[in-house]
Amino acid sequence: MSTSAPTRHVRLLAAPGDRHDEILTPAALDFVGHLVDAFVGRRQDLLKERRRQAIRLAAGAPLDFPLATAAVRADLSWRVAAPAPGLSDRRVEITGPPDRRMTVNALNSGARVWMADFEDATSPTWDNVIGGQLNLLDAIERRIDLTTEAGKEYRLGERLATIMVRPRGWHLTEEHLEFDGRPVPASLVDFGLYFFHCAQRQIDAGYGPYFYLPKLENRYEARLWNDVFVLAQELLGIPRGTVRATVLIETITAAFEMEEILYELREHSAGLNAGRWDYLFSLIKTFGHRTDFLLPDRSRVTMTAPFLRAYTELLVRTCHRRGAHAIGGMAAHVPGRDLAAHDAALAEVRLDKEREAQDGFDGSWVAHPGLVPVCREVFDGVLGDRPHQIERTRDDAEVTAADLLSVRRVSGPPTPEGVRTDIAVALRYFDAWLRGQGAVALYGLMEDAATAEIARVQIWQWLRHRVVDQETVLRLLDDELAALGAEHPWAALDEVRALFERTALEPELPLFFTPDAYTRHLVRHAEAAS
Ligand SMILES: CC(=O)SCCNC(=O)CCNC(=O)[C@H](O)C(C)(C)COP(=O)(O)OP(=O)(O)OC[C@H]1O[C@@H](n2cnc3c(N)ncnc32)[C@H](O)[C@@H]1OP(=O)(O)O
Ligand SMILES: O=CC(=O)O
Ligand SMILES: [Mg+2]
Fold first, then answer.
1. Looking at the predicted structure, is the pLDDT value of residue 530 above 60?
2. 314: which residues sit within 8 A by CB, 6+ positions away?
3. Pocket of ligand 1 (CB under 6 A)
4. Domain named Malate synthase C-terminal: which ranges (predicted)?
């Protein structure tokens, strides 16, 4: 590193794990320490500002495009950085946790990009966090090949997806590391360890350190990330502007600051992604108390709803005006076990990708290798030999604040089946998450932290508006816990019930279910750590 070590250190509180020492080297921990020392205070202030903004909006303050930055939006002269090597053609991006086998499968999947996910698709057990870093390092070093006991071989092919890493969001902490007696921001751990070990290796391989940034709520959080990148590059002697990052627009407040977010990150920006599931979660969380934001069953809120079309149209228009990629979101259908379910899932995904490609997106996400071909086919049909369609500026897509908030047109009460499904999904997902699995297929759909959040906040919203009564929810809760216990005798039923009660049934809605569940259930401190 080009500067001296921090005077205050990151302290490791976890017991040693298999090969963890290869990631948690003194130099890597010093590097993370530098980042934490520099940014921990600002992160804290920004989290406080999130709470203040939530209170303002709950009290009826209007949400609009910020007046203070009108000049940034009006100035058509600025552009984001040119696409970096490996990021020009992003027609298909596969996402998933950096589990060892899935890492090989994702890199070989035929997708152009693999989003290695420490956020929605990962349950942040310490083993998953450090194991994920090891898998990334081993993949980049091409030493990840393995043969299972059953004889199945996993070998990296010749043409691999470009890696983009999604660190955990600003709201989460990593409690196996401590700085000044306090847990460390998880974003800086995931970003810092990957950057320290892999940034130069990726540059040497002809790519670079690339990221996806989740759950940002405003331009100040984008500025914080940009400053993290500047310092990280400086510390390791990597030229400024080497990092690239795609920001997920997946909160309702960030939808009003898309231009500003691109502007803040412009020297490191790789565009925006329409993170539809967290977006819906954020919308319900932010305006859940208002009757005009009462949403029906999740299955009835599709991407053709006017307020969601407004969001994706604005995203494409904003990106393309600034020379940035606009990347589509996740259709939740995953290939089924039988042929009919498989065909139905593919048809749903095809429709979703067709709409995105026609709207001007430059590529999109899939959750499963079996969906890569359909997404590629659709985008091939629109892009042909062009790597993207950034030149399509979508000046026709005029979107107002009212369009983004016009939820009333799809609002309405849930069906009994919708209530049961949300409870079933939340419970099953919580159980998987507590056991270390952050993404699961349930009832033909991919479920992860974002979709599980929707399930629990919908129940909260329906109870609050009395369109479902507490007795019904408690009866369904008993039924679904019994069904879960019958299917999975090992399920942590008491913990799952308590988590559901705390995060869906209390009058005060917790902002996320993950910090509570993490601190209570996933943290394992070594008794003798010093
Ligand atoms: C809202 C959002 O943020 S979306 C982004 C975050 N969410 C995700 O990334 C979810 C990613 N997807 C997944 O994790 C998985 O596809 C699941 C959990 C939904 C389903 O997984 P499974 O039940 O294992 O699916 P299935 O049995 O069909 O898998 C078949 C093979 O494909 C592999 N596979 C499935 N999905 C992926 C993936 N996303 N990446 C790499 N490999 C994958 C499996 O590992 C398995 O390979 P194997 O036979 O070599 O072990
Ligand atoms: O991260 C993606 C989302 O839809 O949420
Ligand atoms: Mg998300």
1. no
2. 255, 258, 397, 399, 404
3. 94-96, 101-102, 105-106, 117, 120-121, 277, 330, 334-335, 367-369, 439-441, 446, 448, 450
4. 415-519
